[in-house]
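Entry for the shared binder. Reason: the reviewer on the internal report wants the predicted structure included alongside the sequence.
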Amino acid sequence: MLTEEDIITLAAGLPGVATVTASEAGGAPEMAWGDSFFYYDPEDDEANRQMPFATIVTNDYDGFDTASKLNRPGVFRLNIAVGRSVFQAVLGYPPAAHAEHHGDIDYTAVDHVLPHPVYATQGWMSVLNPGAVTEEQVRTLLTGAHARAVARHRPHV
C-alpha cells in the first residue's frame, strides 16, 4: 500500500512541486488540517498556488464531501486532476456525463481508481488508500497531472 507519506514523497519529488499540508499555523480551516495539496510552483511563489494538481484528503468535509466516508480510521483519499481525456480513457465516459454514473459508484471502495465524488465533472479522479491494485496507475496518473500543471503554468508577474 502507498501511505500518505509515500505519496507526499512521490509528488514532492517531481520537478517544481510545492507541497502544502494544511494546519492551524498556516491559517487553514480546521476541517482541512492534515490535508496535503500539491502545486506546480517552480518559482516557489505562493501567488502561483491557485489550483493544486493533486491533493490528499484525510477526513470528510461535512455538508460538502462525505461520500468517501473518510472519517473511518486509517482511510485517506488521493485526488488527482487528470483532465477530460484521461478521465474518459480510464472510466469510459467523459466528465460531463458523470451525473449519469454517480449513483452506481461506491466511493468508499479502497484501492480502486474512481471519479472524484465532488469534482468528477472537472476531470478529477480519486483513490482511497492506493495499494497493490492501483499503485502503478496512481504513479502514472500523478505524473501525468504534474505534466498537465507544467504545461498550464504561467508564472505570477
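Summary line for the report: The mean pLDDT is 95.
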